[in-house]
From TrEMBL:
InterPro entries: OMP_Chaperone_SurA (IPR050280), PPIase_dom_sf (IPR046357), PPIase_PpiC (IPR000297), Trigger_fact/SurA_dom_sf (IPR027304). Keywords: Isomerase, Rotamase, Signal. Residues 1-27 form the signal peptide. The lineage of its organism: Bacteria, Pseudomonadati, Pseudomonadota, Alphaproteobacteria, Rhodobacterales. Residues 170-268 form the PpiC domain. This is Parvulin-like PPIase. One of its GO terms (molecular function) is peptidyl-prolyl cis-trans isomerase activity.
Length: 407
């Protein structure tokens, strides 16, 4: 049963954690039930942290580092989600909670009682499972109530999306970008406010270009943020769905990526007969270099013709310095997906994120063979993508406004 639980952990959480002893969380002063952090006056205890770590370990999340801080962040977000739902007058009933727990357990082909028994065997209290499910249910209900009407999908948007996924229709777009710095909490707060201001004020391509020249930290600022034609299918679906909803001259909602907030304006959209089917997955590589060594990165790029050349560059270096992977377009981190969409096979760019700098290279794209598309399935996919975007932005607002005190 434990292997089944680990499987749903990988499917449901989409998160990576390094398995470390749960008692790490108890290494703080004050013992198991001392406060680890306060969120708007509500405590998160060491016990909750250690329990959530054990819960994640049972679900089989593996790889990556910093599990303790990631769990603390998750619990902070849970507090904010529940607090926001409470302010909106939303309550999860006992029946809804029981149904949510049963649904979660059923994905491991277990009853709630069997799932709880597995948890207890690993030292995880049922309360930890209950809190996890309750926060998720409350947040989903709040997001749907708050943003559901704004996230509705029109028939025209469905038509466009179906054209993109068919073998007889595709689209490409002309976009302009404005990239705002958000690599510190101070810059993130300033840029978020500026992005909202620009979204309200800019009404023309000329206005967007002027703002890009003044505020953007991207190299495209010199051209007013103008990008060349991009195949819409190469963009991350969350972004593509926003672009599909725009008319030329309109701007998408601000998109938050690591270290930056991005504004896009649609200049033109052209439906075409595709040369190839829609992209299913992307093969790409990242070669990490020192953050202050842009010149040496350019020297390395000058030696590259394909991703295979990176293996020669990385010879004798730590294995983690070169990463190559193939991911579905929908699973790409948004900032990486945006940059890869601008590249042709064998092209590179320099990516800065999370205090690291890397050479990002597109190795290839794997096309998807067209199949029949169900309109309601397309509507649901676009709706969920748009709703997810609203939810991410709303959670970022809650975190920015919260009083969070570490003990």
């Amino acid at each position: 049963m434990k292997s089944t639980i680990r499987t749903i952990g990988a499917l449901l959480l989409g998160m990576t954690f390094l398995g470390v002893p749960a008692e790490t969380a108890l290494a703080q002063s004050g013992g198991a039930f001392a406060e680890r952090v306060q969120v708007n006056g509500r405590a998160v205890t060491n016990w909750e942290v250690s329990q959530r770590i054990a819960f994640m370990r049972l679900l089989g999340s593996g790889g990556g580092g910093g599990i303790e801080q990631q769990v603390v962040d998750m619990l902070i977000e849970d507090r904010l989600k529940l607090e926001a739902a409470d302010r909106a007058g939303l309550r999860i009933t006992e029946e809804e909670l029981a149904a949510g727990k049963a649904e979660f357990a059923s994905r491991a082909e277990l009853t709630t009682e069997q799932f709880v028994q597995e948890l207890r065997g690993a030292g995880v209290a049922e309360e930890t499972f209950t809190d996890f499910v309750e926060a998720g249910l409350a947040w989903r209900a709040l997001v749907r109530a708050r943003f559901g009407p704004r996230a509705q999908i029109t028939e025209a948007e469905i038509d466009r999306a179906m054209a993109l996924s068919s073998r007889t229709g595709a689209a490409r777009v002309l976009l302009s970008e404005l990239v705002l710095r958000a690599d510190t909490p101070e810059f993130a707060a300033q840029s978020k406010a500026l992005a909202e201001q620009l979204l309200r004020q800019i009404t023309t391509p000329a206005g967007f270009a002027a703002a890009a020249r003044e505020y953007s930290v991207s190299s495209t600022r010199e051209t007013g943020g103008r990008l060349d034609w991009l195949d819409l299918a190469n963009l991350p679906p969350q972004i593509a769905s926003q672009i599909l909803a725009l008319a030329p001259g309109q701007m998408a909602e601000p998109i938050e990526v690591p270290n930056a907030i991005i504004l896009f304006q649609l200049r033109a959209l052209e439906e075409t007969t595709p040369k190839a089917a829609e992209t299913l997955s992307v093969d790409y590589a990242r070669f990490f270099v020192a953050p202050d060594s842009r010149a040496s990165a350019q020297e390395i790029i000058a030696r590259l013709d394909s991703c295979d050349d990176l293996y020669g560059v990385a010879k004798g270096l730590p294995e983690e310095q070169l990463q190559r992977q193939t991911l579905a377009v929908a699973d790409l981190p948004q900032d990486i997906g945006i940059e890869l969409a601008k590249l042709d096979e064998g092209e590179t760019t320099i990516l800065t994120r999370d205090a690291s700098q890397s050479i990002l290279m597109l190795c290839g794209r794997t096309p998807e063979l067209g199949e029949g598309v169900d309109r309601e399935a397309v509507r649901a996919r676009l709706f969920n993508q748009r709703l997810s975007s609203y939810a991410d932005s709303f959670l970022a607002e809650l975190k920015a406004d919260a009083i969070i005190l570490s003990q």
